[in-house]
Amino acid sequence: MQDSIESFFSELNQIPESRSYGRVSGVQGMMLEVSGLERDLSIGSRCDVIGRGNTRVTCEVVGFREARALLLPFGSLEGIGMGCKAELAATEPMVWPSNAWLGRVVNALGEPIDGKGPIASGQSPYGLRSAPPPAHERRRVGHKLDLGVRALNTFQTCCQGQRMGIFAGSGVGKSVLLSMLARYTTSDVNVIGLIGERGREVQEWLEDDLGPEGLARSVVVVATSDEAPLMRRQAAYLTLALSEFYRDQGQEVLCLMDSVTRFAMAMREIGLSAGEPPASKGYTPSVFAELPRLLERAGPGGGKQGSITGLFTVLVEGDDHNEPVADAVRGILDGHIVLERAIAERGRYPAINILRSISRTMPACNTADEEKIVNRARRLLATYEDMAELIRLGAYRRGSDAGIDEAIYYYDRIEEFLKQSKNERTNLETGYAELAELLDESWPLSDASGQEDRA
């Protein structure tokens, strides 16, 4: 009861004593021009535009032109015309999260869309565009995080507070891999952002892929591809704000976002509408300035805070892994996981290309035995891939090179190890033991006396 009263008075204090109004003086495409409020507005301010039939459309200021404020809407502009009243929003955009959000599905405004009724608000507001903890106050990344997917646990080991990118073209299995991570990870809480997702697939993904088990300890933020660019952008901000709430409670958070590319596309639409000149492939400079601000919010917390482990998917256009957004994100994150269409086409899922993927924190968190067995498997894969064309053509004769013969012998075993159905889970310890077994090594590699077993 006390918490509810405090929450009520906190919200009551946000109500202003007076209201300021302006008028719509121009409409061009999705852009509104509002006059009369330019001295009260700044970039990022909110206004409610009151249209015909007393409908309200929330808008955000994205620029100024000739003493007029330029606003983009969060919804449809139907019913909005010249002279419509624009009311200055009372407060800066905030979200009031609580533990009651777990197991719920919300839109970019934090409103429930799962038909389970309203969600109780928390006591403390969280800004949608808050800054990350200062770099000098942040802890180092923590211990290994068990993701439940053996290809990642062994070859791309992830630590608590690390940020990784999942790079893939369309239809290569990103969404299924994310659902496996949400169900099988050992993190305390999952915060999942579906940015620009197909509306038809949202319910299928929630019920079939994520399932009740994964949803029970997750908050899912959804902004479908047909929604306004501001809604898609805000869904990404809300995903990080909710992650920060659970991090501040000392919990280990797994933040999953699908996808950063659609966030960048929304930013591009906003920038071009505001008159910003395009730079690389039509993306405006503000896109590349905003990406690090968003992604740096994930990572280790400071003091007694928990950590936000971030896994962000990047939809590479035309399977070009060097396109502008992919190239920028790869430079910001602490590693990248590459899903390859050719691997998916031969039926091996998850379609992770081990040789093109890397975890920058992995060498420091592995034991000598773990590093040795993983490096041996990588060398065998690399040797086979170098000779793959000759082997398939039958131009290589067995016995010509002992190293190549060994790679051919173990290749199918390693490929079978990397294959994993979406209903199968493998923990960290089991993954290393299975990898050692298929390579005909004893595990652990060192005997009781600490000497390496070279048999």
Automatic annotation (TrEMBL):
User: What's the catalysed reaction?
Assistant: ATP + H2O + cellular proteinSide 1 = ADP + phosphate + cellular proteinSide 2
Location in or out of the cell: Cytoplasm
Q: Pfam families per the record?
A: ATP-synt_ab, T3SS_ATPase_C
Q: Which SUPFAM superfamilies does UniProt cross-reference here?
A: P-loop containing nucleoside triphosphate hydrolases (SSF52540)
What the entry lists under Gene3D superfamilies is as follows:
3.40.50.12240
Q: Which InterPro entries match?
A: AAA+_ATPase, ATPase_a/bsu_AS, ATPase_alpha/beta_chains, ATPase_F1/V1/A1_a/bsu_nucl-bd, ATPase_T3SS_FliI/YscN, FliI_clade3, P-loop_NTPase, T3SS_ATPase_C
Chain's role? Probable catalytic subunit of a protein translocase for flagellum-specific export, or a proton translocase involved in local circuits at the flagellum.
Q: Which PANTHER family match?
A: ATP SYNTHASE, SPI-1 TYPE 3 SECRETION SYSTEM ATPASE
Tell me the protein's name: Flagellum-specific ATP synthase
User: Per the UniProt entry, what species is this protein from, by scientific name?
Assistant: Fodinicurvata halophila
Gene name, per UniProt, is fliI
